[in-house]
């Protein structure tokens, strides 16, 4: 699963779930939670999104919390795997920064609804679910730090720049409006250049 | 109200409300909504925060929605007035960028709970309230664009950089943890330098 010229627009992301109601409900949850937030969304909203009765949903997911956990895990694992894939075979530090920021930004633009859920609903996860998600987040942060490390002498500066550059990509999920915002690939390229300029300064 | 060496840690921000229960409840709402989100927070959480009964809250605010609107308006007006104040008397384009980004970042670090509410709960506002808030946001965005404009030739590049630099400050509200995150002033200075480097490149 690699972002080359075309981002994977949601399709491949959901392959962790079998085709059918479990996948359709997860996609509907990403859309509904992303639109109005986890707590303001009912299982009825999600069920209706796929033309199912609220009771039908519970055949596939034990609870709204399980749906949140499922899509959070899929989202975080996808960010991590897309980021790793984007770095494959690239050894120049400068080009690694470019590839990582480009991929991370495109992911948050293409999957802005799911991205909003995975970045802003951490506090809505049940504690046992949060543990699992936090571990994936730590892997992604470690990957980013590893990419930025060759460009810094001191740890404090590395940490500050890592946070700042990830902020650029994450915040895309907050403001992205399809049709009105720049094309994901154009934005990814622009932010990758911006990050390289930032690290060169 | 100006951020000089010391940020105004919440105090002055609330002067729009008279000292007493209306102000205390607004501060409690910022803290409680910021912690677990608007929809997951009940008026009981807010009332108990100030040692009041849930019924007592309704003497001062008609609804949870009115509380959200009140603190959203205070927060947005404060960002706008702090940003304007930070620019007073500064004419060099480079120094204006520094002053704006510094002030904007410090605001989001110091007021991270309220900042989370004003940046991530726009969709939770009632439509008539949203109109008022959107107008203040447009003023702040116009101010930022005015500060960055002298550094750009084309409008597209101006718009992309304005969004990116504001993202840095806004996203602070998402990740800021008092005691563990950098001091607001240190962060404000660092992000201001970062923005200048970015615009110089």
From TrEMBL, chains A, B:
Q: Which UniProt keywords apply?
A: DNA-binding
Keyword DNA-binding applies: yes
Stored InterPro entries: Homeodomain-like_sf, HTH-type_TetR-like_transc_reg, HTH_TetR, KstR2_TetR_C, Tet_transcr_reg_TetR-rel_C_sf
Recorded coiled-coil stretches: none
Gene Ontology MF terms in the entry? DNA-binding transcription factor activity; transcription cis-regulatory region binding
The protein's name in its UniProt record: TetR/AcrR family transcriptional regulator
Gene3D superfamilies under this entry?
Tetracycline Repressor, domain 2
DNA-binding region boundaries: 42-61
Please name the source species.
Oryzicola mucosus
Domain HTH tetR-type stretches: 19-79
UniProt key word Ligase: no
Instruction: Please report a single Pfam family linked to this protein.
Output: TetR_C_24
